[in-house]
Design brief:
Distance between the termini: 23 Å
CATH architecture of the largest domain: 2-Layer Sandwich
Protein name: Phosphoribosylaminoimidazole-succinocarboxamide synthase
Number of helices: 6
Shape: globular
GO molecular function, one term: phosphoribosylaminoimidazolesuccinocarboxamide synthase activity
Largest sheet: 7 strands, antiparallel
Enzyme class: ligase
Keywords: ATP-binding, Ligase, Nucleotide-binding, Purine biosynthesis
Order of helices and strands: EEEEEHEEEEHEEHHEEEHH
Number of domains: 2
Radius of gyration: 18 Å
Helix content: 25-40%
EC number: 6.3.2.6
CATH topology of the largest domain: D-amino Acid Aminotransferase, Chain A, domain 1
Strand content: 25-35%
């Protein structure tokens, strides 16, 4: 098999040139990082779980008319996605106080917010992905006002979908982050949900117990990250409910 050309390697994924023009192969690694990569570990099976869960969420969004870059899953660790120009922002949607919001504003973790709060961070690891306002985004030309209107609409639609989906399996969607990309069809540009949606990029708490089922398990040394992600996958039907907690056997 011909050696593929690597385009980019991040903390959790590797991007390769796709088989067709305008496509990219996204490979999910087993690496886990926290605190801007100050804490690192390799967790067996994490990449497989995130690939399958991101496929599940992106397919669901495509099916309800929320455009994403996802095309199809190729194998247990790779998926084919549309090439897009990533807007240099992380879009964070918060339903409950947690993490940096709790620290910044002194609000107890788990407090329900009066409405979903959408925040923007400038994507730059060296700077620690700082929080920015729409004023910064406009001034530095990272996105137009029309882009921002579309981004807000996409983010809230993703939130509606994900909140309902998770609530249905006994999980509270505390917050999540997404990335948005520009796809060009000739002269026409549209925005799509890009990157991934997985327990790496969401805070997920059990509705009854408050048990964390997301990357905070790794950040805060709360147990097995694979077990937490496997629990999410099982509840959503991505994994069979029977069987032990050894290496996950995933449904093809």
């Amino acid at each position: 098999m011909a050696r593929r050309k690597k385009i980019y390697e991040g903390k959790a994924k590797i991007l390769y040139e796709g088989p067709e023009p305008g496509t990219i192969v996204q490979y999910f690694k087993d690496d886990a990082t926290a605190f801007n990569a100050e804490k690192k570990a390799t967790i067996e099976g994490k990449g497989v779980l995130n690939n399958r869960l991101s496929e599940f969420f992106m397919t669901g969004l495509n099916n309800i008319g929320v455009p994403t870059h996802f095309l199809k899953r190729l194998n247990m660790r790779e998926q084919l996605v549309r090439s897009c120009e990533i807007i240099p922002l992380e879009i964070i949607v918060r339903n409950f106080a947690a993490g940096s919001l709790s620290k910044r504003l002194g609000i107890e973790e788990g407090t329900a917010l009066p409405r979903p709060i959408v925040e923007y961070c400038y994507k730059d690891d060296k700077l620690g992905d700082p929080l920015v306002t729409e004023e910064h985004i406009a001034a530095f030309g990272w996105a137009t006002q029309q882009d921002m209107d579309d981004i807000l609409s996409l983010a809230l639609r993703v939130n509606d979908y994900m909140s309902g989906l998770m609530y249905g399996v006994g999980i509270k969607l505390i917050d999540f982050k997404i990335e948005i990309g520009r796809v060009y069809d000739g002269d026409f540009q549209r925005l799509v949900v890009a990157d991934e949606i997985s327990p790496d990029s969401c805070r997920l708490w059990d509705l009854e117990t408050g048990q964390k089922l997301d990357k905070d398990v790794f950040r805060r040394d709360l147990g097995s990250l694979t077990d937490a992600y496997t629990e999410v996958a099982k509840r959503l039907g991505v994994l069979p409910k029977s069987g032990g907690h050894s290496k996950p056997t995933l449904i093809n």
